[in-house]
Amino acid sequence: MELFERPGVKTTGEGEKAVLLHVRTRTDESPEALDEFVELVRSAGAAIESVLVVTRTQFDARTLIGKGKAEELKTEVEALEAGLVIVNHDLSPSQERNLEKLLGCRVLDRAGLILDIFAQRARSHEGKLQVELAQLQHLSTRLVRGWTHLERQKGGIGLRGPGETQLETDRRLVAVRINQLKRRLEKVRSQRQEGRKGRQRAEVPTVALVGYTNAGKSTLFNRLTEAGVYVADQLFATLDPTLRRVGLPQGGAMVLADTVGFVADLPHEL
């Protein structure tokens, strides 16, 4: 059986041409959910060609949105010559595969979209490790998709076990890398825990700025600390927590922390 091979990327001067599919479960849903979705896509750098809103009380096991709406989506993709469909909902591996085969373009669900943004923005060593781990965990259930060579028995010098298919090799290598990342992250977290214990022994209070992404936490952090951390009018401009020691007017000091912002339905891997 020949698996679907993904087509090339279609771009404009503003980014990859994308059609957005917003799936809601009730007609009285707050408009903020769609606004957030659009901002996430813009933050990822895609050029939004069209937005299709679908209301479903029950999800279709094959395509999430049902055959009729999927055909409507296909017509929109072909008319706009879009190379990407982004769905504001989690898709199962089979739903993603079925939609890609029907639409003839790449399909990305909400979890994949947020992971892509995180991959673009992570700057610290720990942040990059965390994002890579989350991406691989997300990918591990989707390795049957998008690659015509995976089921073929072909040479993999120095990598393949006896009788392994390429798909089995890919799964094994992903599992090995996931274990490596978990060990490295555990080491980083142990080092961070030592720093936390040191602050506790010194009785230095820690104050964290928390809230929705792009609410202005980093701007406030810079005003209070003169740290100069990166600030931008986009979702998830901050992906790495930053700590600074700040003197208090009455004497003494505290540690102020700039944190990663909240967003609805954040992938469990993150």
Question: What's this entry about, in short?
Answer:
41% of the residues lie in helices and 16% in strands. Helix 1 crosses helix 4 (110-121).
Q: Which characteristics define this entry?
A:
270 residues; alpha/beta; Rossmann fold; Signal recognition particle alu RNA binding heterodimer, srp9/1; five-stranded mixed β-sheet; 7 helices; 8 strands
What does this structure look like?
- The protein contains 7 helices and 8 strands; from the N terminus they run E-E-H-E-H-E-H-E-H-H-H-E-H-E-E.
- Strands 1, 2, 3, 4 and 5 form a 5-stranded mixed sheet that branches. A 3-stranded mixed sheet has the order 6-8-7, covered by helices on one side.
- Among the domains are: 92 residues, Rossmann fold; 57 residues, Signal recognition particle alu RNA binding heterodimer, srp9/1 (2-Layer Sandwich).
- It starts with 10 loop residues before the first strand and ends in a 12-residue tail after the last strand.
- Helices cover 41% and strands 16% of the residues.
- It is α/β, with parallel strands linked by helices.
- It is globular.
- The longest helix has 36 residues.
- Helix 4 packs antiparallel against helix 5.
- The N terminus is likely disordered.
Helix and strand sequence = EEHEHEHEHHHEHEE
The average pLDDT value, as a whole number, equals 82
CATH topology name of the domain at 17-108, in short, is Rossmann fold
CATH top-level class of the domain at 17-108? Alpha Beta
Distance between the termini: 35 Å
Shape descriptor reads globular
Number of strands: 8
Q: What oligomeric assembly is this protein in?
A: single chain
C-alpha Rg (nearest Å):
22 Å
CATH architecture of the domain at 17-108: 3-Layer(aba) Sandwich
Individual helix count: 7
- Structural class of the helices, strands and pairings? alpha/beta
Q: Strand count, sense and closure of the main sheet?
A: 5 strands, mixed
Measured as a percent range, the helix fraction is 40-55%
Fourth CATH level, the homologous superfamily of the domain at 17-108: GTPase HflX, N-terminal domain
Runs in which pLDDT lies below 50 for 5 or more consecutive residues are 1-7, 145-160
Strand content: 15-25%
